[in-house]
């Protein structure tokens, strides 16, 4: 039966709870255990799919088509375990479940209440499908004390009680700030945060304390005393130069060892070779390439979390550091693109939504195509490449996407029907915003002999999607005549999945999001190949 590790946070948000959970998962895995990670999000949206990237950062999509919190991306990158719909739930979805059960008469006339009905639904979610794992790590979003979080904290408290101390462990992440004027580290916020947790009945077993400065032994003892934990369970988590250092640093600070001790397990040490090699590649690159990422949500780095990680992974594979220039596409509405793109070795246009900034992206594609700079278009980036080629190569004036109105040539358009296996799925323009996209893993067939087939080393792939609009097949023949060719199709041959230009060092646009499946220890072939092309380019400029 699975043992449960709950990870909560206190003091402030953004301390890296997701990363800490992912790193702990990686450490347990490196000791030979089977792990699974889950995230409980106390906000009321049913899922993060309808939230703006400015609000919430990236929406991470799983193989089974769930739109989830970006922490699931960390979990997958650190453990390689694919997550699913059943690994992320929000308060909104929990309430939706409870309320629809109530409407169906499922509570047999009883008064429906937070305790026990909402808490039971949370517990059901946490415990579902955990039979085959050794450890389930379950992160609670937000910080202790948030009103919305209370039912979740109550539910995990109950689970701790029901399953017993030898099957549950509570980890609490806090901040130990350094006060410049006093020249001191302060433990009080941690004390208060733990007091809050204990007030709702949860005694943490292990404290992970984020700090810019080393936490001296005395301070650790003080925290231990006030928070009622053993001193060796006060684990310092200092700032790191790369997130991939987290597993080995946390291990050396005793994190996984103390967690296992809570369960009474004395296991042999983890094998950290994989992580040491990733860190040494990242710290000792043989060169550097500059990639321009032309986006819209660039102020919020979390909006492109998986993308920047995938580029970093491509760098690991090529032994170079990938320097990313985050460029707001609207700049190209005003200035000549060349100034910003002259010295870059690759241009990437990532996914996006809406009209703002699109003309700038189209200009950046044109620059990449004409100046033969490696170009990678992802989802909306593919759409921009198709519009650019339609207008500037095929002479289709007024080519555009129906996402932004009614263009004269709708080269990107809404497809109302597509096949998933034997099933026909439909999409309705006036339907709900949530869950109306082509979401999750779809297979694609690559054209033998194409550039992408060479990059992947196979002609059958499966990648994750998240979009409403598609390349309009009515225009693909005309685009091919001008050099932009479909080189990957949905298996039924109805939806273009990949397009490329042969007469160019590296020009590939994909309808899906390859960045979601890249791992530091298994960089995605498209990113490996794109960065390799950028290395070639860096030798030219
Ligand atoms: N806005 C486009 C669509 O909905 C592309 C989405 C994306 O880039 N993920 O089809």
How would you briefly describe this protein structure?
This protein is an alpha/beta fold and 541 residues long. It contains 19 helices and 25 strands. Helix 1 packs parallel to helix 3 (71-79) and helix 15 crosses helix 16.
Descriptive report:
The protein is an alpha/beta fold and 541 residues long. The chain has two domains: 3-278, Rossmann fold; 286-538, Class I glutamine amidotransferase (GATase) domain (Rossmann fold, 3-Layer(aba) Sandwich), CATH 3.40.50.880. 36% of the residues lie in helices and 24% in strands. The strands form six sheets. It has a nine-stranded mixed β-sheet, with helices on both faces. Strands 5-2-6-1-7-10-11 form a seven-stranded parallel β-sheet, sandwiched between helices. A hairpin with a 2-residue loop joins strand 18 and strand 19. It is globular. Bound molecules: glutamine. Glutamine is lined by residues 351-353, 379-380, 403, 466-469.
Q: How would a crystallographer describe the biggest sheet? A: 9 strands, mixed
CATH architecture of the largest domain: 3-Layer(aba) Sandwich
Measured distance between first and last alpha carbons: 58 Å
CATH-assigned homologous superfamily of the largest domain: P-loop containing nucleotide triphosphate hydrolases
Strand line-up across the major sheet: 13-12-14-15-25-24-23-20-21
Basic shape: globular
Can you count the helices? 19
Structural class: alpha/beta
CATH class membership of the largest domain: Alpha Beta
- Average pLDDT for all residues: 92
- State the low-pLDDT regions, or none: none
